[in-house]
């Protein structure tokens, strides 16, 4: 561990006009939590209060729209006129009260409002009524396939809209303004070599729009008002601009404007061919699950060198897939960025900067980078920003832990995500808690769900159970391993509350011979294979039955050079819910590994060393070394039934109720435990 004297994360840093108390910044994150006109709500204040209290050097309020027709989610913050200033002051106040700098990012959609439609859109429209989908040429549509072309006059009006919003931000008390010149918003697609083609007005100068916005902002706010725009520094597209182009054409003009720092991102949502065949350009924005950690670091280092070669000294901010203190330190290390900005790690544990500052970094709940929108829907639609791991996020006031005056005896059955979350929180509130686990280890599914050998970042899945286990140990929760909770045990212990968190079991299909094959070991459930490790499967061809749950295992085997077939009874491939947004990448990789999902296949019977299937109406005998069954899950809860009529309060959480994501288990537990 680093000491505060040597830890680069804790060194204060000054730009031309701002002093950051440390190098940790909360990245702009659109929350979708405003009221229906874009004003700040209590929930918005709660979210930013939690972030600011976490100890960041600066907290940047997420994309805030400058004109109504550029919204991308219905509850996006707005800064449309001066009446918005007062409610924005609340955000500034909670950030300043926590001794952090307050920034706000200004935004206008451009092509992005066309994303998120669940119905066909009229040409040029966004999915939210009154919004538009348009760009400098409309040749690279995002969402709406028939976007419009932004008229010259509209560009000029938007320059004024941005600058007026910046003036309002200054009046609200913000220390700096960030501009969303990235990912697919109108300023970025105007910078784009692909989307900005064929214009014959002044905006054929691709940088002009950004430049005018910054210049007009300086006219209204004063040249010394700090600006930290966020730009795509490399589009990562074949034919798009790359870092060298950016350094030659855009960086000098940014520098000439006297910005305080450059917030660098490296991907775009435009529908074009990615330069890197392994990582799509869009995946570098939000840092797709398989995308390497610190994916932006090599770019930042090249940027630093390229700027130095041109004599440009400009503080840099880097972000994307940075979850551990080691990764954070690498991003602010020699020759890299001056600050790092985090988004998902901030939501999953807003207190991580404080933990680093106080020398408690082992207590950081490292982000699994799964589930921000699995729970609440996509942020481009109706979803709100949140965290699967951190149920309290944005509810901190309601969820504040209040020590109980009437401790209850709480018996928890099941040491997975739901059971552990419940145990930790109940203990913090002051209840008398005993946590029982049937197996020899805590962790539940999450402890082994990432046991793949060839798929990257899978070890991150275990970050969550590891953190839970650490907290259980720190709080001294009474844990009884290798003990199955029965009705008799409960009646003998006489708890006030029983929490059933016994998870789910594979929903085995009724197929002739399957039971015997499972008993002999020829057939194995996916749970068993992952627990024991895929390398324990015998030599020879493998059949995975159940593509929705089994695709990642089949892919892992295929990438490890194993011969594998992936079969499923359903007509169409439907990925398991927990695969979430990485399902596109999974399918892409499956294609590259030559793995096909064979759908509409019936499993007739299972022998020892062979199967009979029916595919396209034809029976086929398949010889294989092992059959892995990945049939989906069914709730496992014998206890609630057995306790019915006993007078004991029973609460069910997580998969024991209905199999879903681990985030649902955590959120249910977090809610119920506060209502004991
Ligand atoms: C829910 C959510 C909302 C986001 N909103 C914004 C935003 O308003 N402005 C922006 O520039 N980037 C936004 N991003 C991108 C993040 O700021 C960040 O660059 C990206 O998530 C990669 O960093 P991470 O790996 O720390 O999450 C958002 C990301 C998420 C997951
Ligand atoms: S839940 Fe999926 S889409 Fe949402 S942030 Fe996490 S990985 Fe991305």
The dominant shape is globular
Helix content: 25-40%
Tell me the strand percentage band: 15-25%
Q: Identify the bound ligands.
A: flavin mononucleotide, iron/sulfur cluster
Largest sheet: 8 strands, parallel, barrel
Structural class: alpha/beta
- Cα(first) to Cα(last) distance is 39 Å
What CATH architecture of the largest domain would you give?
Alpha-Beta Barrel
Radius of gyration: 27 Å
Which CATH C-level class of the largest domain is it?
A: Alpha Beta
Mean pLDDT across all residues, rounded?
Answer: 95
Please, how many helices?
A: 22
According to CATH, the homologous superfamily of the largest domain is Aldolase class I
**Spatial order of the strands in the main sheet?**
3-4-6-9-10-11-12-13
CATH topology of the largest domain: TIM Barrel
How many structural units, i.e. domains? Answer: 3
Strand elements, count: 28
- What is the assembly state of the chains in this entry? single chain
Low-pLDDT stretches are: none
Top keywords for this entry?
676 residues; alpha/beta; TIM Barrel; Rossmann fold; FAD/NAD(P)-binding domain; 3 domains; 8-stranded parallel barrel; 5-stranded parallel beta sheet; 22 helices; 28 strands; 31% helix; globular; binds flavin mononucleotide; binds iron/sulfur cluster
What do these coordinates show?
Pfam families: Oxidored_FMN, Pyr_redox_2. InterPro entries: Aldolase_TIM, FAD/NAD-bd_sf, FAD/NAD-binding_dom, NADH:flavin_oxidoreductase, OxRdtase_FMN_N. This is NADH:flavin oxidoreductase. Residues 409-650 form the FAD/NAD(P)-binding domain. Helix 2 packs across helix 3 and helix 13 runs parallel beside helix 22. The protein folds into 3 domains: 8-398, TIM Barrel (Alpha-Beta Barrel), CATH 3.20.20.70; 403-505 and 635-673, 3-Layer(aba) Sandwich (Rossmann fold), CATH 3.40.50; 508-631, FAD/NAD(P)-binding domain. The chain has 676 residues and is an alpha/beta fold. The relative contact order is 0.09. The radius of gyration is 27 Å and the shape is globular. It has an 8-stranded parallel barrel, surrounded by 4 helices. Strands 16-15-14-17-28 form a 5-stranded parallel sheet. It has a 5-stranded parallel sheet with strand order 19-26-20-21-22. The two termini are 39 Å apart. The protein binds flavin mononucleotide and iron/sulfur cluster. Iron/sulfur cluster is lined by residues 286, 289, 369-374, 580-581.
């Amino acid at each position: 561990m680093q000491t505060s004297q040597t830890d680069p994360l804790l060194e204060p840093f000054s730009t031309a006009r701002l002093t950051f108390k440390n190098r940790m910044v909360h990245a702009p994150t659109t929350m979708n939590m405003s009221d229906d006109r874009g004003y700040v709500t209590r929930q918005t204040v709660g979210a930013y209060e939690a972030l600011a209290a976490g100890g960041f050097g600066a907290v940047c309020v997420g994309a805030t729209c400058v004109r109504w027709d550029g919204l991308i989610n219905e509850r996006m913050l707005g800064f449309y006129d001066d009446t918005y200033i007062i409610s924005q002051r609340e955000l500034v106040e909670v950030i300043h009260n926590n001794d952090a700098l307050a920034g706000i990012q200004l935004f206008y959609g451009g092509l992005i409002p066309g994303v998120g439609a669940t119905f066909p859109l009229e040409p040029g429209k966004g999915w939210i009524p009154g919004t538009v989908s348009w760009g400098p040429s409309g040749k690279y549509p995002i969402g709406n396939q028939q976007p419009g072309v932004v008229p010259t006059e509209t560009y000029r009006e938007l320059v004024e809209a941005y600058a007026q919003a910046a003036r309002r931000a200054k009046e609200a008390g913000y220390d700096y303004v960030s501009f969303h010149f990235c990912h697919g918003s109108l300023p970025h697609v105007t910078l784009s070599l692909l989307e900005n083609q064929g214009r014959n007005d002044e905006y054929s100068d691709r940088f002009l729009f950004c430049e005018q916005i910054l210049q007009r902002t300086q006219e209204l706010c004063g040249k010394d008002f700090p600006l930290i725009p966020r730009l795509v520094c490399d589009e990562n597209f074949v034919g798009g601009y790359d870092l060298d182009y950016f350094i030659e054409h855009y960086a000098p003009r940014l520098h000439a404007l006297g910005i305080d720092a450059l917030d660098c991102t490296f991907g775009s949502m435009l529908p074009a061919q990615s330069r890197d065949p392994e990582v799509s350009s869009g995946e570098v924005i939000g840092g797709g699950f398989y995308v390497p950690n610190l994916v932006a670091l090599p770019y930042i280092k090249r940027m630093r060198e390229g700027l130095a070669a041109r004599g440009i000294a400009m503080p840099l901010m880097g972000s994307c897939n940075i979850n551990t203190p080691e990764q954070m330190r690498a991003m602010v290390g020699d020759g890299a960025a001056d600050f790092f900005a985090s988004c998902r790690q901030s939501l999953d544990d807003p207190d991580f900067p404080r933990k680093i500052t106080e020398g408690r970094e082992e207590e950081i709940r490292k982000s699994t980078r799964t589930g921000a929108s699995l729970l609440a829907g996509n942020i481009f639609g109706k979803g709100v920003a949140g965290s699967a791991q951190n149920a309290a996020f944005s509810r901190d006031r309601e969820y504040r832990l209040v020590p109980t005056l009437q401790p209850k005896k709480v018996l928890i059955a099941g040491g997975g995500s739901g059971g552990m979350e419940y145990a930790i929180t109940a203990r913090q509130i002051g209840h008398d808690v005993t946590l029982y686990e049937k197996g020899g280890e805590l962790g539940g599914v999450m402890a082994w769900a990432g046991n793949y050998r060839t798929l990257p970042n899978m070890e991150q899945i275990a970050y969550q159970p590891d953190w839970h286990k650490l907290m259980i140990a720190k709080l001294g929760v009474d844990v009884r391993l290798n003990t199955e909770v029965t009705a008799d045990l409960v009646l003998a212990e006489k708890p006030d509350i029983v929490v059933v968190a016994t998870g789910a079991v594979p929903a085995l299909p009724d197929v002739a011979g399957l039971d015997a094959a499972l008993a002999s070991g020829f057939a194995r459930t996916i749970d068993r294979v992952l627990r024991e490790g895929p390398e324990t499967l015998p030599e020879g061809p493998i059949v995975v039955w159940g593509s929705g749950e089994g695709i990642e295992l089949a892919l892992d085997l295929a990438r490890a050079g194993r011969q594998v077939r992936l079969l499923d009874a359903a007509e169409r491939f439907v990925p398991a819910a927990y695969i979430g947004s990485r399902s596109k990448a999974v399918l892409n990789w499956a294609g590259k590994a030559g793995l096909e999902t064979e759908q509409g296949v019936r499993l007739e019977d299972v022998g020892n060393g062979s199967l009979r299937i029916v595919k396209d109406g034809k029976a086929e005998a398949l010889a294989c070394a092992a059959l892995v069954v990945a049939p989906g899950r069914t709730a496992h809860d014998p206890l609630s039934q057995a306790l019915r009529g006993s007078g004991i309060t029973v609460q069910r959480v997580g998969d024991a109720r209905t199999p879903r994501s681990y985030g649902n288990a955590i959120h249910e537990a977090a809610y119920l435990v506060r209502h004991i």
